Amino acid sequence: MNILGCGSALPTTRHFASSHVLNIREKLFMIDCGEGTQLQLRRSKLKFSRLNHIFISHLHGDHCFGLMGLLSTFDLLGRTAAMHIYAHPDLESILGMQLDYFCKKMDYEVVFHPINPAKVETIYEDRSVSVTTIPLIHRIPTCGFLFSEKKTPDHIKRDMIDYYNIPTYDINRIKNGEDYVLEDGTIIANNRLTTPSTPPRKYAYCSDTLYHRQIIEQVKGIDLLYHEATFADCDLSKAQTTFHSTALQAATIARDADVKQLVIGHFSVRYEDEDVLLKEAQSVFPNTILATENLKIVL
């Protein structure tokens, strides 16, 4: 997971607006696209051509103002593969007018997938991963996204292939859990022939939202949770009136959901040093880190 931006609504010299990119088996998935995202994408040295899916959590500018520029740049780079965008239905007409005016006769198609932020549903799925919406509470319709990697086939032991002279056409079936039957009818149990593959990983992105305990069950036990922590607990009233969370609340969600690691971000400009937010979160959930631009986390 690559963090391109972790600031909140007002631009600063220290933080870019919200955007993340996930690399799942060399496929890139972008979450949110604030101003400056395409610059940060270049700095990250991620391959533009591997990005085919963009998920927008909600239609506040710090989460989507960079989208038009990014799409235009892709056209200038000669892109031909379709770009798929998943967002609230209102974005389709807004973006459509911009594309019609600024990007006439693009050489690639922008495919829009309207989503319902208030509903838990799987909005994307392929052989590697599924993406499910996480309904959040904000001033406008907003959702997070849960990326759930699918299990890969088990690893077959090379010495077992040689010992039992297993033909190539049987190898994939064994990797996917089948036993192997010898010519004399002897059954060789699958667990003798294979070792388990790496457990599938899960990542959840939750920004922006009021403290919302209903998400706990959906993110239970995941590997990594990104949760907004716009304010410190001393500014709880401000968090409540703006429908944001505090670092303490983000950490409480992580602790009660028993996640493995928490990353906090979407920092208010009022904090010149986000260590106050980090210490507050770590007091509840020690395995917390601060989001920073171009931070790369490998699960």
Question: What characteristics describe this protein?
Answer:
alpha/beta, 299 residues, Metallo-beta-lactamase, Chain A, seven-stranded mixed beta sheet, single chain, globular, 10 helices, 18 strands
Question: If you had to describe this structure to a student in words, what would you say it looks like?
Answer:
- This protein is of the alpha/beta class and 299 residues long.
- It has 2 domains: 2-152 and 198-296, Ribonuclease Z/Hydroxyacylglutathione hydrolase-like (Metallo-beta-lactamase, Chain A), CATH 3.60.15; 155-195, no CATH class.
- The protein has 10 helices and 18 strands.
- It has helices at 37-44, 61-64, 67-76, 90-102, 158-164, 168-175, 190-193, 236-241, 247-256, 275-282; strands at residues 2-5, 19-24, 27-31, 51-55, 83-87, 110-114, 122-125, 129-135, 143-149, 155-156, 180-181, 187-188, 194-195, 202-206, 224-228, 262-265, 288-290, 295-296.
- The strands form 4 sheets. Strands 6-5-4-3-2-1-18 form a 7-stranded mixed sheet. It has a 7-stranded mixed sheet with strand order 7-8-9-14-15-16-17, with helices on one face. The protein has a two-stranded antiparallel ribbon with strand order 10-13.
- Strand 2 (19-24) and strand 3 form a beta hairpin.
- Helix 9 (247-256) runs parallel beside helix 10.
- The longest helix has 13 residues, at 90-102.
- The radius of gyration is 22 Å and the shape is globular.
